[in-house]
Design a protein that fits this description.
167 residues, mainly alpha, Methane Monooxygenase Hydroxylase, Chain G, domain 1, 0% strand, elongated, SNAP receptor activity, SNARE binding, v-SNARE_N_sf, golgi apparatus
Amino acid sequence: MSSDFESYEQDFAVLTAEITGRIGKVPKLVGDEKKQMVANVERQLEEAKELLEQMELEVREIPPQSRGMYSSRMRSYKQEMGKLEADFKRSRIAYSDEVRNELLGDDGNSSENQRAHLLDNTERLERSSRRLEAGYQIAVETEQIGQEMLENLSHDREKIQRARERV
């Protein structure tokens, strides 16, 4: 099980390194190359999200006593994913500002306040998303604990019934 997790970790590391490199290139490219690079980064971000989901599934299969270490790794990977998405949004904002400026002939000075406001709102949204995700994780863990308790109670009931039958 942990070997699958480690394999997913390696794939995630390679993928995030590629994404980081491509995000850095986005503002420097022009025209169709830029559009293609944005599409590639979006596709790779989706792949990274899928890898995170697979890793979460693997963590759920790990025995509870060793799950803590993997859960902390997952939190750091999710934070890294959030940073990548934020960086990508910033590079896309820069990209859309350039396109807007080319089309309208605007120098962009009037949009600085709007841009700052947009970045603030994006940051708030990301924080809220992280809080929601943490709440979801707690709910999933609580559900797992409840399921284990129900299984234990079922086993105890069977033992009690067998003991009654013997008596």
